[in-house]
Model the fold of this input.
Amino acid sequence: MCLWALCMSSLEKCLFKSFVHFLVGLLVFLEWTRVNSLYILEIKPFSEVSLANMFSHRVGSFVILLMFSLAIQKLFILRRSNLFILSFMSLALGDISMKILLHGISEIFLCSPLGL
Done:
């Protein structure tokens, strides 16, 4: 368990705290989609279909990247909170009353429109 916490904290420090790493990842993603778009244009002649295909591919890839980054951000926010620590201890110890309490609290925090 200590090894897991150490790996997660070092991973957070190395990858997710720095805005520069995010920008580098975004630039790599944009370059990858540009090369992929050029590959589509080489296969098919320049037409409305190829433009629509490139646009839908780029938008779909960007939505997936955005969903993944938001999920990772939410994971680290949840990991820092006391709720995560209490729920992990509850699951490890098998305390049913604590599980019921944490389930109610987690529904309040996770289902609220203002919660992250």
Q: What stands out?
A: The two ends are 26 Å apart (CA to CA). Residues 48-80 form the longest helix (33 residues). The CA atoms of residues 9 and 76 lie 9 Å apart. The helical segments are 2-16, 19-43, 48-80, 82-93, 96-111.
